[in-house]
């Protein structure tokens, strides 16, 4: 099989799996927020066509330096410790994944793709300070919401709210800001007897990694109208991503604990 034919076959296979995600309305959703059976389908498909498996390729294609510019992050379980190794992927394949929100750039010549939830040390980080050194769950991320200086965070927050409000008003919803009421969400959208309680989070990067307060998480668990609206690249190229409350509560991971030492 020629390198050209192999290349086309591989991309077609990946696109086929991800197109099913589009049909299910899950485009641009991090892999960990897919349903378990959907995760398994995509992970199985991708793993079957990585470089170190029986991927369709010839030696010339495999050795081509132009093809080895990106990395696939695969988790390895060693006893109770979870580690991560990096496997080269072709740039065109990563482009397909990135279009679906499954990849992110950490270095000009590397785009790791997180396969599963990660916790623990990384065996070979791409560079010092790589954000993958922390958990990849929705509640953590030094590159996401809740980190950085207060002035920038406020700008990101206001920009995100404006994006969400414009989006819903353009669709005929009446939007009211209720963040000051501390009710567990920021905007209430109403239309034709329907209501959506929108918790808005803005991030300055392309990763939908945010922090939720205890009150917000409680609302996610109990309020059927609650919806998480995350605006990535809020100050530069805003993209609105929405997450159902079940996905949010399933992905949430406690990162800070209150410790009362006075007792």
Q: Quick recap of the structure?
A:
By secondary structure, the chain is an alpha+beta fold.
Description:
This protein is of the alpha+beta class. The chain folds into 2 domains: 3-133, no CATH class; 150-251, Trna Endonuclease, Chain: A, domain 1 (3-Layer(aba) Sandwich), CATH 3.40.1350.10. Helices cover 32% and strands 19% of the residues. The chain is built from 7 helices and 7 strands; from the N terminus they run H-H-H-E-E-H-H-E-E-E-H-E-E-H. The strands form 2 sheets. It has a 5-stranded mixed β-sheet with strand order 3-4-5-6-7, with helices on both faces. Strands 1-2 form a two-stranded antiparallel ribbon. Strand 5, helix 6 and strand 6 (226-232) form a beta-alpha-beta unit. The longest helix has 21 residues, at 3-23. It is globular, with a radius of gyration of 20 Å. 30% of the residues are buried. Mean pLDDT is 63; it is low at 1-7, 47-90 and 103-147. InterPro entries: NOV_C. Residues 158-240 form the Protein NO VEIN C-terminal domain. This is DUF3883 domain-containing protein.
